[in-house]
Amino acid sequence: MIIIMSPSATEEEIHLVQHEIEATGFRPFMNPGVERKVIAVLGELDVRKADLAEQFQAMAGVARVELISDLWKLASRSYYPAGSVVRVGDVSIGSDEVVIVAGPCSVESEAQMIQLAHQIKAAGGKMLRGGAFKPRTSPYSFQGLGEEGLRILAKAREETGLPVVTEVMDTHEVDLVCKYADVLQIGTRNMQNYALLKKVGTTGHPVLLKRGLGSKIRDLLMSAEYIISEGNTKVILCERGITTFEDSTRNTTDINAIPVLKNWTHLPVMLDPSHATGNWQYVAAIAGAAVAAGSDGVMIEVHNDPARAWSDGPQSLTPERFQNLVVRLRAIAEAVDRAV
Amino acid sequence: MIIIMSPSATEEEIHLVQHEIEATGFRPFMNPGVERKVIAVLGELDVRKADLAEQFQAMAGVARVELISDLWKLASRSYYPAGSVVRVGDVSIGSDEVVIVAGPCSVESEAQMIQLAHQIKAAGGKMLRGGAFKPRTSPYSFQGLGEEGLRILAKAREETGLPVVTEVMDTHEVDLVCKYADVLQIGTRNMQNYALLKKVGTTGHPVLLKRGLGSKIRDLLMSAEYIISEGNTKVILCERGITTFEDSTRNTTDINAIPVLKNWTHLPVMLDPSHATGNWQYVAAIAGAAVAAGSDGVMIEVHNDPARAWSDGPQSLTPERFQNLVVRLRAIAEAVDRAV
Amino acid sequence: MIIIMSPSATEEEIHLVQHEIEATGFRPFMNPGVERKVIAVLGELDVRKADLAEQFQAMAGVARVELISDLWKLASRSYYPAGSVVRVGDVSIGSDEVVIVAGPCSVESEAQMIQLAHQIKAAGGKMLRGGAFKPRTSPYSFQGLGEEGLRILAKAREETGLPVVTEVMDTHEVDLVCKYADVLQIGTRNMQNYALLKKVGTTGHPVLLKRGLGSKIRDLLMSAEYIISEGNTKVILCERGITTFEDSTRNTTDINAIPVLKNWTHLPVMLDPSHATGNWQYVAAIAGAAVAAGSDGVMIEVHNDPARAWSDGPQSLTPERFQNLVVRLRAIAEAVDRAV
Amino acid sequence: MIIIMSPSATEEEIHLVQHEIEATGFRPFMNPGVERKVIAVLGELDVRKADLAEQFQAMAGVARVELISDLWKLASRSYYPAGSVVRVGDVSIGSDEVVIVAGPCSVESEAQMIQLAHQIKAAGGKMLRGGAFKPRTSPYSFQGLGEEGLRILAKAREETGLPVVTEVMDTHEVDLVCKYADVLQIGTRNMQNYALLKKVGTTGHPVLLKRGLGSKIRDLLMSAEYIISEGNTKVILCERGITTFEDSTRNTTDINAIPVLKNWTHLPVMLDPSHATGNWQYVAAIAGAAVAAGSDGVMIEVHNDPARAWSDGPQSLTPERFQNLVVRLRAIAEAVDRAV
Question: Containing H/E element for C103?
């Protein structure tokens, strides 16, 4: 519930409303310094909501009561207007720097991962990605190397100094993945796996939250709210394409999501053009678009031999193409007063 | 991988291909009695797939090799052309009977649930639904009564004899929910929570698998395949609306999914018009449409006082309206040679 | 603009607002007998709207002013709560009868059309459909027989007594099509061809308006409003599938549109399961669903030899299958207290 | 129909197939110099297609016959691999220059238009846009000034030298609009108004073809094919947002469409961020994304007083903001080796 006070409401009237919220067992939440006087009412709002709305509506100075229970609060831009920066080792996501994360879809072998990690670092990548636990549409597809994959990622970090982001798919695996990874990725299929969101919210680890294929931007923010409300504010959002009627690409990149998210939330925002297009030929164009649109980073699938990749080969760049991409992104970043 | 044999392929040629599949470490799978000779190759197909395709392509009698790794096999209609029936107590889902499942969105109290259960049974409902663990978009919304909710559902079953279906949201809770529930529901947000699918696949419990909001029919079948491939064949599919540009209803009922699923899979299919419309005024029309389209059941939200429901009030029927709905559905079921 | 009066507004206050609307050059529009006092302001609202809103907001008895210029008025259910019936010859669309319209996608020859018309009539069809001017995605596809096709349709009507519905694609052709057809069809691609809508709005001919593939229900109603506001109230709406991410069918039948439209507008509503599925195997299921959901009619593609149809063969029923369909629809119609 | 020849097919075999195509009344079409030998069969392919496919399949050297009637040919990249440039006065669309088109949604008055035209030119705009005939969802909305609007646009061109693009909505108006405009715009609602496409295809005027809200990229190309096949090759394509489930923006910018179109067609491509977002706050980000993704131009709504615009005010930039945008786009264009 959101209570909108009259522009002419007095401090006294506002305090009385806040007091009444507490008296009914909820938590009032009001951003200091915001021009429009809006009081968020936090708690299990579904119960007795109609009655409460009437009750508050009747109070002096109240202009309007909205029964909007689906609203992010702690993820809201108004909560932290300056924008938050998530630090992972030496990397600052949400700063002036545009962060390039790169790596293979799946970790396949130590030799491959170490080689790729060196190539990515040399080209200008700042963080490594690679799947150890893989969410595959088919149960018969390769499901990832599991803990062995995590071990390999940690080895690649040791050798290159690049922090590592990798997916965690189930509450059971969170502790294990935390032992090896710098950033926990919540994949598109688990964006609304609330048990998992709550669990990663109790760790101190940064979380990369990918948008669900069929999820609205507001739902992405509500999922971020699940993590933050458990005490973990280090959340990075990632647009990775949505499902639409257009079938010439694997998904439709919702490039609008970049400025919308920068407007609505203080959290840093990335874009994954590899999944958003599903076709390596389009990755450079869309990665550039992301940087021009204000993304705080991009996440690129790179593979030494895409034709033989165990997963997502068609959307993976070779290390050479990745190198060219970084050059291109650096130029675009500078054009919008940022750096790669 | 799918190997399509020539119409003129001999038994000998087919056997050689099957043998070669095993020799390369995969499992051949071929439905007996199917006219078109197609051999499914089960296993982790992503690895070395290109080479294998060439190898099989070169064998005598092979017409064509398709690298389709995302294909359901055990859920396929061709695997069990007669159609499977899932039995829950006295209820047979997938039979000539159209099964009506009803209950509140959330279990709120024992008194409410028992009263509703009696009303639902008297009206003609055959199974109870009710959420104890609730996946809510907002962390501040009511999250369900948890085990207490499960206990209440079991009590309602004891009093009325109606089997109970309820959602399980995390691998941690599967054993607990199995203790109380007759059917485990996998909700729309967890349709691709593969850890959870595998876990419920290891139980002997029937599973009601709801389609993801942004998931294609083929993805729903792949998720069913996850459950079946773990050994649990008692899977009921449920269409509950998809996300589209149309915003006059909460979701868009994909009524086409009913005949498509009946064509593609042997699994029974239900429809949930309450979530698919989000508006009680449209529930009767869409429930009737589901029965006319060949659905094996419908799942209806019923609440004794929708205006005060703790969740999903706007889409819940009163017990009186539910009673009228059953009368209507019975007439439509008879018109298509089935019974309610 | 919509002006919502206070529940306590006096008759005098309402009259003053209406008078002021006229004084500013607009037309007030208020449905008699509606409980909620809402005054629609008709006219070119875009100009000076912000000022006007403030002006009306300041008047006594006004609760709220909404700057909703995109709102149907004459198509609204509240304008004619009983529901309108469009009569075409002996056929009444919007009555207790569920009207079955059938015919080939394209008129191909006189012999074919006459034979089909007799078969359709014998089976229980009440109106003929057939394309003479065909909107084809490709300029290289068959574009229809043109006036010769119209002449053949008129001949088929003469022989069977069945009225004829056929598409008109351009303002230039409206007069010509009116000479032959009983009902003018506006196809999905022209739903927002406003010049064409206005032109058919000036004829006395009934219009069958098909929903655009990517158009919301509210846009369909606005297009109907274009026709009605030119003086032609004989508008029949037709749901024919929308474009979504689901690709197992040609389009996604928005079955929800049936009860939503019956709720929002007084105009009769039909459904075209042939285009909405794109697959004859699914036509019977979806046609039945439409009738169960409250559709006032269905529109079915029938062809004597679907495999050789010049267009839309895969979604056409044979006359035999059509005959079976009518039997099925009759049973479902009776189950919902209507007749075929 | 597409006939794919074997890699080993001889010249003789290819000639025989081409000859046979002509003998059956169709036109063979084969791009010289393309590695894969593919013969397009142009004509009314729907008729007798199954028979023909078998006939060609049986010929020597033919690898495969595909019954793809919905395929663009003259718009294909392979038809003109270098990419075509559409010249309008001094402006070259499809060249190294990124062309900025700007102007108000609707032409409102001569004074406004002239002033805006000067401001746009001074800021770096190269072409003027402005609606004289307006396709409005509601019949009660402002429908444009008509010929008076065209006259004003021509006056603005006279004063500034900037060419003018404006929408034409009906075949009746094409001659009139040609008298005043440099580029004919086909709006999103008329993308599949085939009578209109054919008509503008017979003029010598460049055409700006906007993608339909619910239209796939392949449908956009088929609509371009309608224009080109009438003899007019001066077609510019324009992405302007598609309809999806995301509702935080008016439409969803399909940024992927830019590289897909550059890959599939030789025609120049623009993007309209004003309609694609519906919110001026997001226009700069998405315009920049378009340039970074390889768009040949952008189309921006500019209004001297957006709050009082007669249409589309919320998505219009002020002249000052437009000036800043051009500076930003120039930097991004240079970063990708182009110029503004």
Answer: strand C99-103
